[in-house]
Structure formats: C-alpha cells, structure tokens
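fyi for ur records
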Amino acid sequence: MALDPTDLFDIRSLLSDEERAVQDSVARFTNERVLPIIGDCFEQGRFPRELIPEIASMGLLGSSLPEKYGCAGLNGVSYGLICQELERGDSGIRSFVSVQSSLCMYPIFAYGNEQQRQHYLPAMARGEIIGCFGLTEPHGGSDPANMKTHAKRDGGDWVINGAKMWITNGNVAQIAIVWAQTEDGIQGFIVPTDTPGFTAQEIKKKMSLRASVTSALFFDNVRVSDAQRLPNVRGLKGPLGCLTQARFGITWGPVGAAIACFSEATEYAKQRIVFNRPIAANQAVQLKLADMARRITLAQLLSLQLGRLKDAGTMQPTQVSLAKWNNVRMAIDIAREARDILGGAGITTEHCPIRHALNLESVITYEGTETVHQLVVGREVTGINAF
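which gave:
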C-alpha cells in the first residue's frame, strides 16, 4: 500500500480512537469553514470572529480542562492535534484557541479559587467570555522579570498601572489575565476589559498574523477587587507555567502549517509543466519535497512523544523548548521552500505558503524566541546559565 506523504511513519496508527476522532472533526472544520475564507481574512487583516461560536460548540476552548467546568476533558495529545489542524488553516486561528485555552482558562483553573473557576470557565468554554493574556511589555520581551506594570493594595482593592504589548485577542476580549509586580512579588489578576482606566489599542500594519487581533493594553489606575486576584500563585512561575501549556500546543501547530505548505507544493509540482514535463520529475524538486517529508515526520514523532510525556505527568519545560525550537524552525523552512517551488504564484494569498511563512515569523518569536529556547536546551545539557 502506498504511504501517506504527510504521515510516512503512520503516526496516526499510534493514536487512540478518541484522538483520531478529535483530529478528524477539527480537520473537517478547517477544510469546510477556515480554508474557504482565511486567505481573504489575511489579506483584509480581519480575524473571523464569526467562527468563535462554532469553535466553542466543538469543545475546542479549554479542551484539556475537566468536564465539571463545561470543558471537554481531553488529553494533551488531543489538544495538540486540535492545534495542528487549526494551524493547518492559519496560525491566527490556532493562536486564538491557544490563548483562550492555555493562557486564560488554564491560569484560572490552576491558580484561581473555586468561585473564580465556576464563574469564568464554563462561560469561556462556551465562547461567551473571551480572554487575553497580559505578560509581555513594550521594553521587556524575553525578560519578563523586568516587569514595570505594578499593582498596589488600596484597602480591599488593587490599583494597576502599566502597559502590555503584542497581546493576542486584546480587542475582542472581555477579560484580561494581567500579571503585575506587587509588594509580594508578581501576581495575576482577572481584569474585566470594561473596567475604567483599561484601554486596548489594536496594532495595525502587521505583515504577520493578519487574521488575528493583536493589541497593546494600557492600565491607568485600573481598580479591581481582591476577589479578582489569582490567589494560588506568586512569582514568575505563574505566567511561565501558563506559557509551558501554550508552548506545548505550539509544538503541534506548525506541523499543520508545514503539512499545508508541503501538500500544496507537491500537488503544484505534479501539475506544473516546464520543458515538457512536470517539475516534480526534476531531481532538485524531489529532493526538496523529500526533505520536507523527512522533517515533518521527525516533528510529528517529537510532538507525539511530548504529548505522551505530558499525559503521563512527566513533561519538562526543556523538552517543550526543544520541540518548539525544532518544529517552528522546520515549518518556517518548509513554508519558504514551498513558496519557492510555486514560483511567482507563491507570492499570492491564493496559495498558502507565503501566508504561513509570514505567520510563522511571529510563531518563531512569541512565547520564547528561537534563541531563548536554544539557550534553555544549552543550559540543560551544560548546567551553565548563558542568559
């Protein structure tokens, strides 16, 4: 039997029936609802908000959280497959789900109290409350410890001042998970976006993640009650724990982007006739396509093993860093090579490689740049911190 070019090692056979069912349902959603519109959304710089109710109804928001909070209670591998199939459509769609699930719902579940969980999580799973994650600051980037946003006690309230930058979902969110310096270290707050003094300003002129909302957040004496504080965490381990959850999904997402680019380049190469034969008959093109298949296969195996470690409770942040570094680099290289195979046709949004290539410029930067993840792995193998 012929092998599936996008799954040369039959990794799908290693999935459970439930995992395959999740992948198939999200793949159908991507094929039927995302792909027909996403090129135009990217060109127009528009996030397709009309997809949110359907994404929620499929159980894709907070999919790994317990069913008692209205979530799907899926395992980590299933969440990874969700990210892979959504990013096969577009990084912006996967980013929306990733932020809602891993950066907003997860900290309420992990660091909040039961009242906060019951109040927010079911509504967030239904897509009725959208969240954004306020950690990165204009001057901070890869150094979150150098946080300037601060929260000061004022009676039973907290008053927040500062700014956050490059915040996905900022202008569509009803709440922001905001991390701020306090006298007791960094703490997290659930801040309703209609609170006086809170401002979200959408960032324009982007050439990447154009089908996603990216914002700057500003806090001018934003007052919230102590009931809005996440009580069960102090310090950077709070936001970094959220980022580990999100980065896990990011190790899977770019595999989907790479598969989309590889598949389109392969079909184009079979149909494009130059010098009286398809360009797929040229050794140079076959070498490129074979290398894409090799790198996708390795990335699939890496993410699957990472997912099994996560579900076993043994996953380590360094392993997530290695997978994010490898898989995003793999995907961005494949997107560029696929664009080259498409020739002049590859520069238009009628084909996916240029869109994925541009999106992946953001994915390789956010939630830890490639260099940061390389240094995390370097620290692990040498025992020396080079930051």
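The mean pLDDT is 97. thats all i got for now
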